[in-house]
Automatic annotation (TrEMBL):
The lineage of its organism: Eukaryota, Viridiplantae, Streptophyta, Embryophyta, Tracheophyta. Gene3D superfamilies: Calcium-transporting ATPase, cytoplasmic domain N (3.40.1110.10), Calcium-transporting ATPase, cytoplasmic transduction domain A (2.70.150.10), HAD superfamily/HAD-like (3.40.50.1000). The active site is at residue 553. The keyword Magnesium applies. It is found in: Membrane. This is Phospholipid-transporting ATPase. Belongs to the cation transport ATPase (P-type) (TC 3.A.3) family. Type IV subfamily.
């Protein structure tokens, strides 16, 4: 086909079937454009489906008044640009014989191919190897499948369930009303459903049901201990606060939905594009999108402003990637759009699904069956870039778009501490029932003892003795049995706050405050990406302080994921080892020589690339030797075998020479789906092979100043099975070659083996690959070969068949690729450096000192991973490396058994021998198991015994071995060995294998796990771990969106865990214990009172005092301390990482502390009740006056108790603690001033008496004295690490003490 011929002849346009009812034609008249420009000389891409489409063409053209002039200007501009270019194109007749365009297959990977990159670098939702599948099955058995890769179901296209889209005919498309409109809804509630639905969600908390039952009991007349309205107040308050919060959040969602649904787009109607609201767009309608506009729904491209049908989109909102993606309109429809022809057709596509990286469909257009793939569809949420306009037909709208189907939230996680709290709540419930039982039995015995006196006793007489109408009537007396039962129920109502309902809302507010300060921490702000720390989950702040295992990705997490081309092995010779930058003068000469060949035009890369002068000179020699040819094809492969997009901009020259000062420089930047690809293409450009144009059917490369056009006949993209990528191109001289690059493990097996020279090159290249890997470089092998006419024809036929297959398309394409990816000639290899992030070695060392094990799970090859492990201090020279590389189950079993025997690792039963493996686990960490010594004993000097321990072990295992090991019989063997090692490094692992490793630890230990990663392939691991951290990196934001916390750099993990994690755990642990104490001391005081009042379940306190106690009187100080208290400064926590061990040793919250707190509570309640009782024993004080005294005393007592434990006093802490006491007194004054209340005016009488104030003072002293003495003795004789460090902190701040005990703080 010559460049001047139209792609579609008139005969093809006339093809129609008269037996079909035709949809209304899509008619566009955008100016005469009867033949396409030279750069459009290619035909259709892959042909996808076998179904037939029925359509008709109408010769009538309607003029679109609104857009015709705009489109005409665009086309004229495009045509003028294209016609100025000349290319060395292939012979048109030969090309027409093998008519095939670049088939951009559906992309199944977030990150494309790469040398020793993570070969399975995809979301856990994508295609995985058999190993990953087995892991997934295992994890499903363990009921964690909802956290795995179930998101993207395999949606094969079958004739019976295909979706039919009639282009420009939405009525016929949706004639059965089965498709949704384009209106989206992310809100949870409506006005009608808000109340019932919100209450249903809130009452999932069992404690709320408990308080609802209490309130319901209080409504019954025999049980009305409190006022009926008052008893509902605490529950209603908590429910209302939560409902308001939920309602506000949902109102914001409604507002966002309304704004989104009311946006407008141009939709074809009656031959013209007219504005229409997004929510009214329907499947089958034709929509036009202009530059920088958002895509309103999932659309198949029909045409673009570029005559070649290419469009650039940004998928930031969909997958977080900022780099541009290429999408193509099929050439058949593109030419029809540009020529103003009617577009009528039928699209058969798969049913809506979540897979954003795959789309299977076909289109029948003018008698042709045209395949459609992921490269032909643009999705809702994307944005059009660098393209003036595109036109497409809607296939999925509204809730059926892939973006909306993928909008599910991450699985919710519960705090470990909250689980422990529920255990203690159960104990309190048992204690509560015990007290109620005592009261009920006491009531029954008392009634039995005084049953003959019930007619005359003041509170139990059966008959009214009044002069009114009730005289002689009987009381509602139900008999001793029922009275005992009612007494039991009444006691539950009186003692209800033993289970602290306020604790739930207090914890929510405290976590919110903690998150605010974590987000605002300037030490966790990444200026390079302008990203702050993010708290995406508020439920697990305190878990950050109890982490024992960190599972980290390598690429983009430990490293920057900014690739730099460093080394090249070309034809058996290595380059780049000695020369990092070419000599500036020589570089200038080379640049001038290159510039002269293109008439003064130079290419300027966005970033400078280091070049090897020897390799550069080789490329510029006029030699025809094998080495020169190999070097030429090597860099040609780097420039051609990729999917990157060149972005050209004109800029003034920055060259200093006078002759170049005023010349134009063509600045070029590359947008690719992988940093590896961008680095390789940039390197090729630096060596004189500049890719500067890419369309769907050809590429143009500037080869040392000469523009050459290469027709792209086919492209096999990288996949995790083949682990390579290939492209079939036709050279300007009509030669056809296949250029291949891929991982060494998959490339050496398909090389030609019958040439002696090739054997020498192969061995040399393998040696270079080993050398590069040992330096931590990511490696890639490059090869190529010529294709004969017969091979090309066979491949094209099978390629077309595979592309149009409805089922197993990926498998058939792999089989087709195998036809040409064989007997390749080795050209060389590349080494790309992925530099470590700043502070990674220091962070890993700090985590190790803190007793946290760091495991690295990466897709890189073993040598690269080991090298990175050494450079980041994960591995050290003195470690014994255990390497497990097995190719069968028996081999893996033997390797594990040998390693365990060699290093004396015992086989343990998982949880029941927790102590033994923890000893192994803690070779050089501060750990004394909880069942062997109290958790609060000093650990500061425990490290002195480290020298007696066995040498450190490092386990290195590959993904192939994990295929066989992650089965039930070998998992325990791996667990025993891995937990005995100081470091575990997993190489070549798939996403689900990462999740399987995390699950291995979670299922067999009680330790907390944290997973950190930056890519889509880390999502499964992040969701599986107890805490998931996402890195805002180069690979998009899937990891961030699936995470609980997100940050910009790995080094921030040190501060997140050692500082904020420690603070949060210490605060929340104390908060829970204090809330239990605060409510229990109040309830026990009421219990002692009831025992002294004939078990009558009456109360000396007013109803409002009982309600306000935990809601108003004592809540604010708890919240303030939970947010602001700090036991140690951040500098001390960073300086002494071993202090972090207090968290995973549960020093701030454990069963022992709980029972000690309850014993202290028992003592304080006795003091609180009996001191006022004996003080006023001989007085005539009434019961309500005693109630006022107890109310003031208990509030003062619990606040002084809190003040004793506060570590850091700031102004707001003083206001909260002392202000609460003042507010309580003020409330008492107000309540006692209301005449209708029984306690009217009591406070005014009491406040005048010195005895009142002395009694409160005596209560405080006697109640808190034992606690004070125990704390003093414990800190003097058995100080904990934290107490020693705190003392050192204080001494450092006091100049007069400097130098007194310099060693104590650093012990």
């Amino acid at each position: 086909m010559t460049s001047g011929e139209p792609l579609l002849s008139s005969s093809s346009r006339a093809s129609n079937l008269s037996s079909v009812v035709h949809p209304p034609p899509l008619t566009l008249n955008i100016g005469s454009f009867n033949c396409l420009c030279p750069n459009a000389s290619f035909s259709s891409s892959v042909f996808d489906d076998a179904q037939h489409n029925f359509f008709d063409l109408n010769d009538e053209d309607f003029v679109s008044v609104r857009d015709s002039s705009f489109c005409k200007r665009s086309l004229e501009r495009s045509a003028s640009l294209v016609t100025t270019k000349e290319f060395h194109s292939a012979d048109s007749q030969f090309f027409q014989q093998f008519l095939l365009e670049c088939p951009v297959q559906e992309r199944k990977r977030m990150v494309s191919w790469g040398g020793a990159m993570e070969l399975h670098n995809s979301s856990a939702t994508f295609e995985i190897s058999g190993a990953s599948t087995r892991v997934q099955e295992k994890l499903n058995k363990s009921q964690r499948s909802h956290r795995k890769s179930h998101q993207f179901e395999d949606n094969l296209l079958h004739e019976e369930n295909a979706r039919l889209i009639y282009i420009s005919d939405p009525k016929r498309t949706n004639d059965k009303y089965e498709f949704t409109g384009n209106e989206i809804r992310t809100s949870k509630y409506t006005l009608i459903t808000f109340l019932p639905k919100n209450l249903f969600i809130q009452f999932h908390r069992v404690a709320y049901l408990y308080f609802l039952a209490i309130a319901a009991l209080n409504q019954l007349p025999p049980l009305a201990v409190f006022g009926r309205t008052v008893s509902l107040f605490p529950l209603l308050f908590v429910l209302c606060v939560t409902a308001v919060k939920d309602g506000y959040e949902d109102w914001r969602r409604h507002r966002s939905d309304r704004k989104e649904n009311n946006r407008e787009a141009l939709v074809l109607h009656s031959g013209q594009f007219q504005l229409k609201k997004w929510k009214k767009i329907q499947a089958g309608e034709v929509v036009k999108i202009c530059a920088d506009e958002a895509i309103p729904c999932d659309m198949v491209l029909l045409g673009t402003s570029d005559p070649s049908g290419i469009a650039y989109i940004q998928t930031m909102n969909l997958d977080g990637e900022s780099n541009l993606k290429t999408r193509y309109a099929r050439q058949e429809t593109t030419s029809a759009v540009l020529e103003g022809d009617s577009i009528l057709g039928l699209i058969r596509c798969e049913q809506p699904n979540r897979n954003i990286y795959e789309f299977t469909a076909n289109m029948e257009f003018k008698g042709q069956k045209i395949s459609l793939s992921q490269s032909n569809i643009i999705l809702r949420g994307c944005q059009l870039k660098n393209t003036e306009w595109v036109i497409g037909v809607v296939v999925y709208a509204g809730q059926e778009t892939k973006a909306m189907l993928n909008s599910a939230e991450s699985p919710s996680k519960r705090s470990r501490l909250e689980g422990y709290m529920n255990r203690e709540t159960l104990w309190l419930s048992i204690f509560l029932l015990g007290m109620c039982l005592v009261v009920a039995i006491g009531m029954g015995l008392w009634l039995e003892r005084h049953k003959d006196q019930l007619d005359t006793l003041a509170y139990y007489r059966k008959i009214y003795f009044t002069n009114g109408r009730d005289n002689g009537k009987t009381y509602k007396y139900y008999g001793i049995a029922m009275e005992t039962f009612f007494s039991f129920l009444s006691s539950i109502i009186v003692f209800q706050i033993m289970i602290p309902i306020s604790l739930y809302i207090t914890m929510e507010l405290v976590r919110l405050g903690q998150s605010y300060f974590m987000i605002g921490d300037k030490h966790m702000y990444d200026s390079s990406t302008d990203s702050r720390f993010q708290c995406r989950s508020l439920n697990i702040n305190e878990d950050l302080g109890q982490i024992r295992y960190v599972f980290s990705d390598k690429t983009g997490t430990l490293t920057e994921n900014k690739m730099e081309f460093q080394r090249a092995s070309v034809y058996g010779k290595s380059y780049g080892s000695s020369v990092l930058m070419a000599d500036p003068l020589q570089e200038s000469n080379i640049a001038e020589a290159t510039a002269a060949a293109v008439g003064g035009r130079k290419w300027k890369l966005k970033s400078e690339i280091a070049v090897d002068s020897e390799l550069m000179s080789l490329l510029h020699r006029d030699l025809v030797g094998d080495e020169r040819i190999a070097a030429h094809e090597f860099f040609l492969t780097l420039a051609a075998c990729n999917t990157v997009i060149p972005i050209l901009t004109h800029s003034p020259s920055s060259c200093c020479t006078e002759s170049q000062r005023h010349e134009d420089v063509e600045a070029i930047d590359y947008q690719g789906e992988s940093p590896d690809e961008q680095a390789l293409v940039s390197a090729a450009s630096a060596y004189g092979y500049t890719l500067f144009e890419r369309t769907s059917g050809h590429i143009v490369i500037d080869v040392n100043g000469e523009k050459q056009r290469f027709d792209v006949l086919g492209l096999h993209e990288f996949d995790s099975v083949r682990k390579r990528m290939s492209v079939v191109i036709r050279y300007p001289d009509n030669a056809v070659k296949v250029l291949v690059k891929g991982a060494d493990t998959s490339m050496f097996s398909i090389l030609a083996k019958d040439i002696e020279r090739d054997d020498h090159t192969r061995h040399a290249t393998q040696a270079h690959l080993t050398e590069y890997s040992s330096q931590g470089l990511r490696t890639l092998v490059v090869a190529a070969r010529d294709l004969t006419d017969a091979e090309l024809e066979e491949w094209q036929c099978k390629y077309e068949d595979a592309s149009t297959s409805l089922t197993d398309r990926s498998l058939k394409l792999r089989q087709t690729a195998a036809l040409i990816e064989c007997n390749l000639n080795l050209l060389g290899a590349t080494g790309i450096e992925d530099k470590l992030q700043v502070g990674v070695p220091e962070t890993i060392e700090s985590l190790r000192q803190a007793g946290i094990k760091v495991w690295v799970l990466t897709g890189d090859k073993q040598e690269t991973a080991i090298s990175i492990g050494l450079s980041c201090k994960l591995l050290t020279a003195d470690m014994q490396q255990i390497i497990i590389n097995g190719n069968s189950e028996d081999e893996c079993r033997n390797l594990l058994a040998d390693a365990k025997a060699k290093y004396g690792v015992k086989s343990l039963n998982c949880r029941n021998q927790n102590l033994e493996w923890k000893k192994n686990d803690e070779i050089d960490y501060l750990e004394i198991p909880a069942d062997k010594k109290p958790s609060n004993l000093p650990q500061w000097h425990a490290g002195k015994d480290e020298g007696m321990m066995s040498p450190s072990l490092a386990l290195i295992i590959d993904g192939n071995s994990l295929v066989y090991i992650l089965e039930k019989d070998l998992e325990s063997e791996l667990f025993n060995l891995a937990t005995s090692c100081r470091v575990v490094l997993c190489c070549r692992v798939a996403p689900l294998q990462k999740a399987g490793i995390v699950d291995l630890i979670k299922c067999r230990t009680d330790d907390m796990t944290l997973a950190i990663g930056d890519g889509a392939n880390d999502v499964s691991m992040i969701q599986m771990a107890d805490v998931g951290v996402g890195i805002c990196g180069q690979e998009g934001r899937q990891a961030v969106m699936a995470s609980d916390f997100a940050m910009g750099q790995f080094r921030f993990l040190e501060r997140l865990l050692l500082v904020h994690g420690h603070w949060n755990y210490q605060r929340v642990g104390y908060l829970v214990l204090y809330n239990f104490y605060r409510n229990a001391v109040f309830v026990l005081m009421l219990f002692w009172y009831i025992l002294c009042t004939a078990f009558s379940a009456t109360s000396a306190l007013t109803d409002w005092s009982s309600v306000f106690y935990s809601v108003i009187y004592t809540s604010v100080p708890t919240i303030v301390v939970g947010i602001l208290d700090k036991d140690l400064s951040h500098k001390t926590l960073i300086q002494y990482p071993k202090l972090y061990g207090a968290g995973y040793r549960h020093e701030s919250y454990n069963m022992q502390l709980f029972w000690m707190t309850m014993i202290d509570t028992l003592w304080q309640s006795l003091v609180l009740f009996y001191i006022p009782l004996y003080t006023y024993k001989e007085s005539s004080i009434d019961i309500w006056s005693m109630g006022s005294l107890w109310t003031i005393a208990v509030v003062v007592l619990v606040n002084i108790h809190l003040a004793m434990d506060i570590q850091r006093w700031v102004l707001i802490t003083h206001i909260a603690v002392w202000g609460s006491i003042i507010i309580t007194c003020a409330c008492m004054v107000v309540l006692d001033s209301i005449p209708i209340f029984p306690n009217y005016w009591t406070i005014y009488h009491l406040a005048k008496s010195p005895t009142y104030w002395l009694t409160i003072l005596l209560i405080i002293i006697v109640a808190l004295l034992p606690r004070f003495l125990i704390k003093v003795i414990h800190q003097i004789f058995w100080p904990s690490d934290i107490q020693i460090a705190r003392e050192a902190d204080i001494l450092r701040k006091r100049p007069d003490y400097l130098g007194l005990k310099p060693d104590r703080g650093s012990s």
